[in-house]
Records
---
Amino acid sequence: MCIRDSDKLERPVWYLYRPEDNRLLRVNPTLYANPFNLLDEGWLDDQRFAFRYNERGHQRMRLVVVDAATGDAKSAVEDVTRTFIDWTGKSFFEIGPGGNEAIWQSERSGWSHLERVNLRSGQRWPITQGNWVVRDVDRVDHEKRQIWFTAGGVHAGQDPYHVHFGRVNFDGTGLTWLTRADGQHRVAFSPDGEFLVASYSRADLPPVHEIRRVSDGAAVMELEKADDSALRAAGWRTPIVFSAKGRDGVTDIWGLIYLPTTFDPAKKYAVVEDIYAGPHSAHVPKNWHVNSFGQQNAELGFIVVRIDGMGTSHRSKAFHDVAWQNIADAGFPDRMAWMRAAAQKVPQMDLTRVGIYGTSAGGQNALHAVLLHGDFYKLAVADCGCYDNRMDKIWWNEQWMGYPIGPHYEAQSGRTLAPRLKGDLMLVLGEEDTNVDPASTWQVVDALVQANKDFELVVLPNVGHGALGHPYAQRRFREFLVERLIRGR
């Protein structure tokens, strides 16, 4: 059964039906009074039913256990945070046979880790620990009491976003890293499970394939290593992997620098940032790639950069929490510090001519760049952006901006900030966007007109979300970059 709230979100209410005595028991809703959603419902045994309660605002995640005989409910385990629980990305949960224990993912230590929970007593024990993050759980082996998982930040000196594979016992012992090379990994196991093929690469390293032993992760042999010498001989350049300190002077910020194949060390180049700062993940490519959108745009005569600033995922909880009620931040203080440091490494970067472009959440980020940091970013192309977090997908926006809706929503709206526009702006919109309401763009357009601000508007009929991918929009976008940042028109 569901009750509709004032803002039209359903509020489920559990009932248990007992056919043996034709009784309908209403489960006491006290422990799940304000749900955003209820997850992972199921029977622990023939006397106990359980579900996870994800509270509206995403600051509490609770496992509720229900007595089937009475309908009474109790909290078996819960996490509470001042900011947000990343329920879309860091909330693995699995109940063991017999219904007496569960594996529970939590960031209460400040890092994404796994815990073992006694569902009768509520006692919790860490399975993984340390200043690194569990990314995903591949497999839970209840018979051997082992967990197979992926993680980041586990090997000192490597990019903390590199995905590695590991195995650990339920009691936290026997932690074994199955991959160790400096790169982004994927694996394939042999039929007997004794060996695996680990394939890894980096943005600046072509793929390498090796055999490793599953028992201890030791390397057995290298199978193959890709050769990019022909590409290099033809003038192709790998992106430059670069890290620099962020706004706090302590935290490493990672990104890529794309140079044109015609790069001339004697010239200065305008810099263009390819941005997507959605807090649900991290977005700088870690695999080897040869024809990215960033590289294509560099060929116009730019140096293109991609950066993961604070407020994005796959680092510490504190790193991620920068986004809480603060999505307009988008890591800009880290991005600008990173670019200033990058210009010391690549002095051909002209930071007096910096542009930015992005789509969807990246469109919102690009708009905020010229509304809030117009002294640094001189140009922006914003495509299909969710410029007001009150009128986009509720599951995504409330995850980071919180509930109830407060004045911070209005303060960070593109419509509110439109009078602060500095520099050149192009808005791109797909008229049939079903992901982000086109009205979000039109509200910004109206506010810019009211503020008497000059801007470009490209509207594509019969085109949906991500209109910048359309050939016409790409031509207009690239002409805009060249005309304003290179030719200075």
---
Amino acid sequence: YRVSEDKVRIIAKDGYMIKVDRTFPAPKSLETEAKKKNGSYTEKDVVDQLLRDFHKKCYICEINDLQDPQVEHLLPHKNGKYPERKFDWNNLFLSCGHCNSVKNQKKYDEGIIDCCKVDPEKLLTFRINENAVEIEKKEEKEDKTLDRTIELLQEVYGIDNTGMREYKSDMRFKGVLRQMNLLYDNLEQLKENPDSKMVQRKLKVLLRRESAFAAFKRCYIEEHKDIYPGLQKYLE
């Protein structure tokens, strides 16, 4: 099972997302700040609620325990040109600085998958073959939103046009490596001792949506349901 670093580099270039349950009501400061000339959408109550809802993970790359959390707009407000977007709770997402920077391109203005409204796991599949991971739409139909999402994820994990961006991408490569090898190691232990409650608890934690890079781990188990039928309950 164990994945080499070269394989993870290919894996990471395809990226992942996970379903997020946004809580309501919206933070109170948004209504107040929207009435101000230079109101802020990053007041403490907004940041705190986003951190809870998104499990302290970037909604694009899924890196966790963010050191540089940022409030990102799914649909850009263009420096206040679209004020209805600027303070719209449904339009605010938690991201890392790296992903926010990459997404800040005109080609992504029309938006990508809203992971609070749809489940990316139901729309995309992530498969591993001998040399790489392939990301595909589950249904072969034209969908510009899905196509843009895939393109964004590829850039987030593969962009190397500056030294800092290459460094940040590499951090994500290594994060995926650690998580996937943890999964594979525990699957080996489960094979050796299928009745182990400890191993099952570890796998449950690894497959939670709250975990780092959860989508790929969850997709692997879902794609191998015939081998791991007892783990499917952890994907619910």
